Amino acid sequence: MNYRKLGASDLLVSEISLGSWLTYGVGVAAEKSKLCVKAAFDAGINFFDTANIYGRGAAETVLGEALAGVPRDKYVLATKLYFPMTETDKGLCASQVKKQLDASLKRLRVDYVDLYQCHRYDADTPIEETMRALTDAVKAGKTRYLGFSEWKPDQIRAALKVPGAARFVSSQPQYSMLWRNPEKDVMPLCEKEGISQIVWSPLAQGVLTGKYLPGKAVPKDSRAASPEMGGFIERWLSPEVLEGVQRLRPIAADLGLSLPQLALAWVLRQKNVASAIIGASRPEQVAENAAASGKTLPADALRAIDEALAGTYRLV
Predict the structure, then answer these.
(1) Which are the contacts of 14, defined by CB distance < 8 A and separation ≥ 6?
(2) What integer pLDDT is reported at residue 227 of this predicted model?
(3) Pick from 25, 47, 179, 293: CA 20 to 30 A from residue 202's CA?
(4) Following CA atoms 72, 73, 75, 77 in sequence, which dihedral angle do they give, to the nearest 10 degrees?
(5) pTM
C-alpha cells in the first residue's frame, strides 16, 4: 500500500480507503463489516471514511465497534455532517456542528476524528458562522483537520477567505472514469490551495467492476439488486455505459489488472487525489481493490480507456 499526504496537513493516508456509504450499518451485516475492516488493515489501509447520515448513525456505530481496541494512532478517521438527522437537526450552523460532532465521536468511540467534513454546502447558514464553529472544533481537539464534499469553486473560495478560520485540507467529490466533472474547476483550485481530493464512488457503485452485463439481469447478490444499497445506481446501468465498461476488459487484461484495479488506478493517476474510497461488502473485495495502490497506467492505456468510454462519461 502506498500513502499520500492529505493536502496541507501532516496526515498520510492510504491510496485506497474504506468507506461506509450504503453498506455498514445499512446493507451489510455488522460481523461482515468488521471482517472488511480487518481485511483493510491487513491490506495496509489506514484511512476510514463515514458520515453521521449513513444509516442515521448506524454506520458510525458499526465502524466504532470494528475499530475498538485498535491503537488510535494506527488509523485516520473521517466523518461528516450536513444532511438531516431529524426534522430539526440538519445543516452547518454552529449549534449543529457542535451537536453532531459530539454525537459522532460518541458513536465512533473516539475522543477526536482526524478529519471532519461538511457533507454539502449549507446555503442557509453564513459561511462565517460555519467556519468559526469548525475552527472551534479544531481548537477544542475534537477534530484535527477540516474538509468538505461536493462544494462549488465559489463556495470553496468563500470559506478560504474567512479571517482566522482553520483551512480545509480535503475535498470529497464523486470522481470516476464515468464522472469526471471535478477535473474542470475543483481540482485545479484545490491543488493551488493545498487541498487534496478524497474521491467517492471511483467504481461508479460497482458498475466499473464489469459485473453488470448489457442486456442481462443484475446479479442477485449485487449492490444493484439490494434495496438498501442499490440507491442511485440506475443512472449507470444504461446499455451504452455497460457496453463501454465491457470494452475496458482487454485494456485491464493487457496490464495484468482486474477491472476494479484499472478504475482505481485511473483515479489515482491524478496527483491531487490522495485517496480513493471503496465500498466493500466482502473482505475479498477489500483485498482486490487495495492491490490497485501503486499501479500506474501508461499513456496508451489512458487513450484506450477514453476511446472505450467515448460518449458515456460526464465532463461538464
Answers:
(1) 1, 2, 3, 44, 45, 46, 47, 275, 290, 293
(2) 55
(3) 25
(4) 60
(5) 0.92
